[in-house]
Amino acid sequence: MLYITGTPIGNLEDMSYRAVRILQEADSILCEDTRVTRKLMTHFEIDTPLKSYHDFNKEEVTESLIEDMKHGKTYALVTDAGMPVISDPGFELVSRMQDEGLPYSVIPAASAFTMALVASGIASYEFTYFGFLPKSSSKRSEKLSEIMHHQFTSVLYESPHRIKNLLTEINKIDSGRIVSISREITKKFEQHVRGAAAELLSKLDDEIPLKGEFVVVIDKYEESETEFTGQPKDHVTSLVEEGMRPKDAIKLVAELRGLKKQEVYDEFHK
């Protein structure tokens, strides 16, 4: 049996009774960083053995874990904070459990991105979770351009030393876009700030300390009617200049204007 067990993202009082019981009863707990998980175990007086399971060893240990569970062993999978598998290792193990027809269950807990979305004041009927942006500057610019032209609300994670750079890039593309920043969620200095990109950028370092992990919620892209008056080719060109890949820009322009993608492609490449 495998229990995919959610843990608190900051405030230990958010730990559920069920999660504590599962961690106590499991034969072993699979965790990213044993040092981090051991603090949680100590707080709740749980003495279940810990076993490392992370991006660097998951391929080596997954099959042995499957064999253990075939022979009756029970594991609990946790992450350093929040729900396992979300932007963390684990989906491969769940996939193998499915392949082998082995039982597993999910023990719920908070995820920072859902809590930030709820606290943002930005419409959440349709949204896309993007996780962390790529580290490569070129790939990062491409992804951010895609996000800034996305037709749904977007949610992403950012580190404190990159948040200013992120807001600067957002500001260059659309300084008036409504953005919400959440930090230190469930902790003592929890903070949620919403406003235009330019406004939030001006508040960094002052009203918004560069401490803690950040969750950024970006309002959806809305194309004004006046932007459709130009030629599709010019529209694609402007998106490419903002950092979007030509094929993505062509697809977006076709969707926004109700045109066939091939038509836009042909015009752009004339």
UniProtKB/TrEMBL annotation:
InterPro entries, per database record: 4pyrrol_Mease, 4pyrrol_Methylase_sf, 4pyrrole_Mease_sub1, 4pyrrole_Mease_sub2, rRNA_ssu_MeTfrase_I
Name the gene for this chain. Answer: rsmI
Q: What does this protein do?
A: Catalyzes the 2'-O-methylation of the ribose of cytidine 1402 (C1402) in 16S rRNA.
Q: Name one GO molecular function term.
A: rRNA (cytosine-2'-O-)-methyltransferase activity
Q: Which GO terms describe its cellular component?
A: cytoplasm
- Name the protein family: Belongs to the methyltransferase superfamily. RsmI family.
Tell me what reaction this enzyme catalyses.
cytidine(1402) in 16S rRNA + S-adenosyl-L-methionine = 2'-O-methylcytidine(1402) in 16S rRNA + S-adenosyl-L-homocysteine + H(+)
Gene3D superfamilies recorded for this chain? Answer: Cobalt-precorrin-4 Transmethylase, Domain 1 (3.40.1010.10), Methyltransferase, Cobalt-precorrin-4 Transmethylase, Domain 2 (3.30.950.10)
Going by the entry's taxonomy, the superkingdom of the source organism is recorded as Bacteria
- Which Pfam families does the record match to this protein? TP_methylase (PF00590)
Q: Which UniProt keywords apply?
A: Cytoplasm, Methyltransferase, rRNA processing, S-adenosyl-L-methionine, Transferase
Q: According to its UniProt record, where is this protein located?
A: Cytoplasm
**Residue ranges annotated for the Tetrapyrrole methylase domain, each copy included:** 1-200
NCBIfam families this protein is in? 16S rRNA (cytidine(1402)-2'-O)-methyltransferase
Where exactly are the transmembrane stretches of this chain? none
Assign the protein's first listed, main location to one coarse class. cytoplasm
Q: Does the keyword Hydrolase apply?
A: no
Q: What is this protein called?
A: Ribosomal RNA small subunit methyltransferase I
Enzyme superclass (EC): transferase
What is this enzyme's EC? 2.1.1.198
